[in-house]
Amino acid sequence: MENNLEKLTLENGMKIYLYKDSTKHSTFVNFITKYGGFYNDFKIDDKEYNIPNGMAHFIEHLLIETSKYGNLIHVLGEKQMSTNGVTYTDMTQFYFNAVENVEIGIETLIRAINEADFNQEDIEKTKGAIYQEVRMQRDNKFRVLNDVKMKNIFKKIPYINNLGDLNNVMNFSYEQVKLCYDAFYNPNNQIVVVAGNFDVEKVKKIIEKIVPYLNSDGGNLEFIKLEDDIVYIKLTGACGCCPHKNETIKYGILESIKEELPEIKDVINVDI
Predict the structure, then answer these.
(1) pLDDT digits over 11-38, tens only?
(2) Are strands 82-87 and 92-98 parallel, antiparallel or unpaired?
(3) 202-272: CATH homologous superfamily?
(4) pTM of the model
């Protein structure tokens, strides 16, 4: 049995925990941001802010449902990855479970969460989803009973329902949402946990080597799929429209990948 836990901290402060277990058939990935229901009062540059309860849960929904790739549950689901998010009092988690293409899922998840570019329309759409969820919770007698129980247990420390008060949630402004997202969704406030049957070096080196290589020139890439030892990607940003993108693929990306994965035959850019 091969059970190894490796811990590392990237230059941007993000903490990575890699747990290899070859006895498992799948891999579980958990992307954690230290921001939950209790984080309603905070300070930025000596200025104090108070945000009504429910914001952490609101942002969780917003990032999943309106990511630049589309609804993350559907996007990763198409790659046979079971995906979701959950908000606790002290953290928000985005996670997926996969049998293959773990590296693709990791890049898609992290970039979707940390490169969010939501607008007012996305916020209104999220309000509608939260409205339905709160209404459903009110109709669930077990949820209502649990709220009553928790409020009586935590009398000295006020019990917080992470969903928040519906009236407050429906009045969240773009400025409030953007303020909280920018304040907490930063690499130095995040943790990535990968556990299961995966290639540790592939996960580390693909992310650390290829993505920064493209970022330095104002571009990036999105993994599409790995099929018959051929990697399919989509070049984005400056790389997507660069007249030398074929050279970038052949002499940059392909060579970098083959150093770690010599079995790879080719890299193909897919314009979709």
Answers:
(1) 778 889 999 998 899 999 999 999 998 8
(2) antiparallel
(3) Fe-S cluster assembly (FSCA) (3.30.300.130)
(4) 0.71
